[in-house]
Amino acid sequence: MRRGSLAMGLGGGLVAAALLAFPVADALVELWSARQTRADLTATLAAPPSPVRPLVAPGLAIAAADRASAALSLAGRIRASAASAGLLVETLSPVPSQADIVTLRVRLSGPEKAVVAMIDGIERGTPLTRFRSWRVTALADGGVRVEGEMVAAWQ
User: Fold this and answer.
1) For residues 28 and 36, what is the distance between their CA atoms, to the nearest angstrom?
2) What strand order describes the sheet that includes 129-138?
3) pTM, to two decimals
4) CA distance 127 to 118
5) What's the CA gap between 136 and 119, in Å, rounded?
6) Are strands 101-110 and 129-138 parallel, antiparallel or unpaired?
7) How far is Cα of residue 6 from the mean position of the Cα atoms in its chain?
8) Which of 132, 94, 90 is nearest to 109 (CA)?
9) What whole-number distance in Å separates Cα of residue 138 and Cα of residue 70?
10) What span, in angstroms and rounded, lies between the C-alpha atoms of 146 and 106?
11) Other C-beta atoms within 10 Å of 104: how many?
12) What is the pLDDT of residues 110-127, one digit of tens each?
């Protein structure tokens, strides 16, 4: 063995080590990051679930045993309000919706002031009821027709 070949071997080894140092450092950083992510996910899974919060404040939801009885309760409230305001309930039918929400498709017609007052009374009262979507059209006799979907929470 000559000194020159030893020096070339050592020099080549140092150059190869220097060239491989950056990829090795990147791989170690990614490994540490992956381990930290795994530890975070493990801690998240081990933590107790957060408590389920009600959709609305207590007292603002329809108290009912199931969706059907909640829909009947809301429909009865709408029919009673419409009858007291002298409005015609043309359509009142349930629509599939989320777990804790009851949705009714509604079509009402009558004098404009009475329709606006009835809708205002329903949306301001309890249980909390809102129109998800609605459309108002003028009728030939001077009245209006309101069509839309009313939603309310139930527990």
Assistant:
1) 12
2) 88-95, 101-110, 144-153, 129-138
3) 0.64
4) 15
5) 12
6) unpaired
7) 70
8) 90
9) 31
10) 8
11) 21
12) 999 999 999 999 889 888
Fold of 67-153: Alpha-Beta Plaits (3.30.70)
Locus of tokens 């030893």:
6
Alpha-carbon dihedral sign for residues 130, 115, 62, 67: negative
For residue 133, give both structure tokens. Answer: 């979507």
Domain assignments of the chain as residue spans, ordered by start: 1-49, 67-153
| pLDDT tens digits, one per residue of 69-100 | 889 999 999 999 999 999 999 999 998 877 78
Geometric angle at alpha carbon 29, from 28 and 32, rounded to 5°? 85
Q: Where are the beta strands (DSSP E) in the chain?
A: 88-95, 101-110, 129-138, 144-153
3-state secondary structure of 134: strand
93: nearest Cα among 101, 102, 84, 85: 102
